[in-house]
């Protein structure tokens, strides 16, 4: 095992242990999906992670992600999640390689992804990103606008509405924000029973997200380390 593989294996095991402790503490009997966010890190790390049993990776920049995913030896072994902001003009590109888009925050983007998915002959799983901070600085639709945007997504033929995503606000504790997201997710499910996913929790706050019922965690630095200079 190379030093890098040993390092990734150790950090991955530590994150899985944190997830398991949080799951037991929350009395949950389901284990959330771990999306390992590999942005800023090379495809060689993705290959090592795949060998270590990782099934889901996350990316947040279109050009970097497109190149990395195209070069993967075992693309079919992975579900690729796009977790960052998407410019509408990049939607056609993202629709070609992403399996799941976590960050749909406006109707125009949903429509552009739908057209891109149609051209690529694909159907994308989509989460609506909700802004949980009053300033909206971390992105996402205002909670009041979630039902409308979700209805738009649900009405598009090449998108499948799977649920909601959020990033905890910079200020204040994450747990109440994730509790709010859970309420919004539950309310959304009344109209859209298939929207069962809740993407929340990163390296620093994954325990709070597990406690509030997150189905997908997006963890980068706790596994990959801090950003490399070539990012
Ligand atoms: C980078 C990123 C993550 C991972 O964050 P870490 O703190 O490195 O675990 C999760 N979600 C989104 C949207 C990101 O851009």
UniProtKB/TrEMBL annotation:
<comment type="similarity">
    <text>Belongs to the pyridoxal phosphate-binding protein YggS/PROSC family.</text>
</comment>
<dbReference type="InterPro" id="IPR029066">
    <property type="entry name" value="PLP-binding_barrel"/>
</dbReference>
<keyword id="KW-0663">Pyridoxal phosphate</keyword>
<feature type="domain" description="Alanine racemase N-terminal">
    <location>
        <begin position="12"/>
        <end position="227"/>
    </location>
</feature>
<dbReference type="GO" id="GO:0030170">
    <property type="term" value="F:pyridoxal phosphate binding"/>
</dbReference>
<dbReference type="InterPro" id="IPR011078">
    <property type="entry name" value="PyrdxlP_homeostasis"/>
</dbReference>
<dbReference type="Pfam" id="PF01168">
    <property type="entry name" value="Ala_racemase_N"/>
</dbReference>
<protein>
    <recommendedName>
        <fullName>Pyridoxal phosphate homeostasis protein</fullName>
    </recommendedName>
</protein>
<dbReference type="InterPro" id="IPR001608">
    <property type="entry name" value="Ala_racemase_N"/>
</dbReference>
<comment type="function">
    <text>Pyridoxal 5'-phosphate (PLP)-binding protein, which is involved in PLP homeostasis.</text>
</comment>
<feature type="modified residue" description="N6-(pyridoxal phosphate)lysine">
    <location>
        <position position="39"/>
    </location>
</feature>
């Amino acid at each position: 095992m190379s030093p890098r593989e040993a390092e990734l294996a150790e950090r991955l095991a530590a994150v899985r242990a944190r997830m398991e402790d949080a799951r037991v503490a929350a009395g949950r009997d389901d284990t959330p999906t771990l999306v390992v966010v590999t942005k800023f890190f090379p495809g060689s790390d993705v290959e090592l992670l795949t060998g270590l049993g990782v099934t889901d990776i996350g990316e947040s920049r279109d050009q970097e992600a497109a190149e990395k995913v195209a070069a993967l030896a075992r693309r079919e072994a992975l579900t690729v999640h796009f977790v960052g902001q998407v410019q509408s003009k990049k939607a056609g590109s993202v629709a070609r390689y992403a399996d799941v888009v976590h960050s749909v925050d406006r109707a125009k983007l949903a429509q552009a992804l739908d057209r891109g998915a149609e051209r690529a002959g694909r159907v994308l799983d989509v989460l609506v990103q909700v802004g949980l901070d009053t300033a909206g600085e971390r992105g996402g639709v205002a909670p009041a606008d979630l039902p409308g945007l979700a209805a738009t997504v649900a009405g598009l033929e090449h998108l499948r509405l799977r649920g909601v995503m959020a990033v905890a606000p910079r200020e204040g504790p994450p747990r109440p924000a994730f509790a709010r997201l859970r309420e919004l997710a539950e309310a959304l499910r009344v109209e859209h029973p298939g929207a069962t996913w809740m993407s929340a929790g990163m390296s620093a706050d994954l325990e709070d997200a597990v406690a509030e019922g997150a189905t997908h965690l997006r963890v980068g630095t706790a596994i990959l380390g801090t950003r490399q200079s070539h990012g």
